[in-house]
Amino acid sequence: MVIIGLTGGIGSGKTTIANLFAQKDIDIVDADVVAREVVEPESVGLGSIIDHFGLSIIKGNGELDRAALREIVFTDESEKQWLNQLLHPLIRDEVFSQISACHSPYCILVAPLLLENQLDKHVNRVLVVDVPEEQQISRTAQRDNCDENIVKNIINAQITRELRLSRADDIIDNSKSDFIQIEQSVDALHKHYLQLAANEK
After folding, report:
1. What is the phi/psi pair of residue 28, to 5°?
2. Where are the domains of the chain?
C-alpha cells in the first residue's frame, strides 16, 4: 500500500484537502479521528485519563472534555508527556490497523504530528498543507472558540513551519481563498500518486 502522509500545522486546512482526495475515492485514515476513538466512553484510554486527571475533564454525557484537557496539557509539559505516552501507542496501533484495511490505489494518512511522532518513516511521501502562522491562529481561535494563547502554545508544541516545509515532498499552499487552484493542486497530486502506486505494483 502506497501511503501519503498529509500534515500541516493546526488550522492549516488538512481536513479540506483530505476531503478532496476522498471525493476521488481515495481511502483516508485520520489520526485525529482515531485519537477521538481511543478515548470514547468505556474505552481503556479514557479510563486511564480519568484515573490520572479525575472526573473534572469529563462532560456530563460521559465524554472527554477535550478543551479542558487541552488547557491542562498545553500549560504543563509533564502532563502533556504523560498523555502522549498513553495515547500515542494506542493511536499508532489503530492507525496501522485501518491502513491495512484500505482498498484504494493509495491511501492518505492525515496526521498533524506526522513528523513530530516520526510517522513519516512509514509513508511514501509527505504532503504538507501550508498557511502562515497568523492564519493558523485566527482560523483556529475562530473555529474552536478558544483563546489565541492556547493556539500559540499548540503551534509552539509542533515543529516550526520552516522545518515542516523542508521535509515535505509535496506542498499545497492553502493561504488564499482560491478553491479552484486548490482543486487543481489536488488533481495534479492525485495523478502523480496514482502513477506512484502503479509503479509499486
Report:
1. -115, 130
2. 2-200
Does domain 2-200 sit in CATH 3.40.50.300?
Answer: yes
d(C-alpha 109, C-alpha 100), whole Å: 12
Q: Would you say 14 is a known binding-site residue?
A: yes
Virtual torsion, Cα 40, 42, 43, 45, nearest 10 deg: 90
Reported pTM: 0.86
- Rg of the chain in Å (alpha carbons): 17
Known binder of ligand: residue 75? Answer: no
140 in a labelled binding site: no
Q: Where are the beta strands (DSSP E) in 37-101?
A: none
Is 13 within any annotated ligand binding site?
yes
Q: Are 85 and 77 in contact (CB under 8 A)?
A: no
12 is in an annotated binding site: yes
82-113 CB burial, b ≥16 within 10 A, e <16: bbeebbbebbbebbeebbeebebbbbbbbbbb
Dump pLDDT digits (tens) for 161-192: 999 999 999 999 999 878 999 999 999 999 99
pLDDT one-digit tens code per residue, 89-121 = 999 999 999 999 999 999 999 999 999 989 999
Angle CA(136)–CA(138)–CA(140) in degrees, nearest 5?
Answer: 65
60 is in an annotated binding site: no
